[in-house]
Amino acid sequence: MRKTLFALAALALAGAAQAQSATYAIDPTHTFVTFEAKHFNFGFSTNRGRFDKKEGTITIDPTAKTGKVEVTIDMGSINTGTAAFDKHLKGPDFFNAEVHPSAKFVGEQFAFDGEKIVSVGGTLTMLGKTLPVTLKADSYGCFMHPMIKRQVCAGDFSTTIKRSQWGMDKMTAFLPDDIRLVIQVEGVKQP
């Protein structure tokens, strides 16, 4: 009897732990991947752009303090608001979108403060090269969405990378190597 009660308690605890883990599908209409780079090395103004097509999932277990995020970005969807600039950035001098049509971030090193995510470490694969990147959570939280009646987790994450590390080293003599990435993400809890 005692063994049976112990086994039932263990199963209940295992079920409770599994119930804490949830998977969220990234909402592409509320998720934006943007970049910022100083205009030339003088630093007086900032060029900005975004990638309009992205997809992915996030799995979070705040009890176990674990998670996994996978975000794929369509490099051909770059949008700076200027067609000629977009064409140049898609070309071989920068993103080489014809040869490398996507970039992917995979993160499994979640840092929490209570139930809030403070950073996600992982790898960014771009231009065929995979390197470590840590995204800092500038804000993060979950809420019950009043319109779709499902839990949504959202946040703003940022990091600064050196483009030359991925082989994007054209024009570094007069164009900055440091690129700031800002990811505004919103994920909808899946059943």
TrEMBL record:
<dbReference type="Pfam" id="PF04264">
    <property type="entry name" value="YceI"/>
</dbReference>
<feature type="signal peptide">
    <location>
        <begin position="1"/>
        <end position="19"/>
    </location>
</feature>
<dbReference type="InterPro" id="IPR007372">
    <property type="entry name" value="Lipid/polyisoprenoid-bd_YceI"/>
</dbReference>
<feature type="domain" description="Lipid/polyisoprenoid-binding YceI-like">
    <location>
        <begin position="23"/>
        <end position="188"/>
    </location>
</feature>
<protein>
    <submittedName>
        <fullName>Polyisoprenoid-binding protein</fullName>
    </submittedName>
</protein>
<dbReference type="InterPro" id="IPR036761">
    <property type="entry name" value="TTHA0802/YceI-like_sf"/>
</dbReference>
<keyword id="KW-0732">Signal</keyword>
